[in-house]
Amino acid sequence: MSAHRIARLKAPEEQGSAEAMRRSLAMMKLVAQGARQLEKGKAISHDEVFRRLRKRLR
């Protein structure tokens, strides 16, 4: 392994921390996207979601 490659490796705790940060950012993005959809009136009820799913799964 080259010295450059070794220098880029992270300790296991750093890798876990980076992964946790990625997951947190992804969740924040989804929450923001949902908030924008609500503001635009694009939300549907849970009942409607399940009705559509049942229809597709038939």
Fold topology:
Layout: H1 3-8, H2 12-39, H3 46-57
Largest sheet: none
Quaternary organization: single chain
Query: From the alpha-carbon coordinates, what is the Rg to the nearest angstrom?
Result: 21 Å
**Can you tell me the residue ranges where pLDDT is under 50 for at least 5 consecutive residues?**
none
Q: What do these coordinates show?
A:
The chain is an all-alpha fold. It has one domain. Helices cover 79% and strands 0% of the residues. The protein is built from three helices and no strands. The N and C termini lie far apart (54 Å). The model has no long low-confidence stretch (mean pLDDT 84).
Care to give the gist of this entry?
The protein contains 3 helices and no strands. By secondary structure, it is mainly α. The chain has one domain.
Fill in the keyword field for this structure.
58 residues, mainly alpha, 79% helix
